[in-house]
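Translate structure to sequence.
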């Protein structure tokens, strides 16, 4: 009966579902990085992460994404200097 139908009336072949691992676009793949930050900055990061209910990793990722999206050029030179002074570890006298 199927052979008697015209080719346009035959049921279309259904693709089999993909099995196994699918290839991942390298642009979408997460990679692990290592950074070194001062204990003072780490303390601030931990405090901010707790206030927002985030893990330290999530908070740092969010901050980096925000910096990449908006940049630092919106700060005045005085604000940038103040920020850098806050982030720089103070030497004990």
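Result:
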């Amino acid at each position: 009966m199927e052979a008697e139908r015209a080719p346009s009336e035959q049921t279309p072949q259904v693709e089999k579902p993909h099995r196994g691992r699918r290839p991942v676009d390298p642009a979408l793949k997460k990679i692990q990085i290592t950074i070194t930050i001062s204990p003072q900055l780490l303390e601030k990061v931990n405090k901010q992460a707790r206030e927002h209910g985030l893990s330290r990793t999530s908070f740092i990722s969010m901050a980096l994404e925000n910096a990449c999206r908006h940049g630092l050029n919106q700060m005045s030179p005085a604000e940038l200097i103040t920020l850098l002074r806050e982030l720089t570890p103070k030497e004990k006298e």
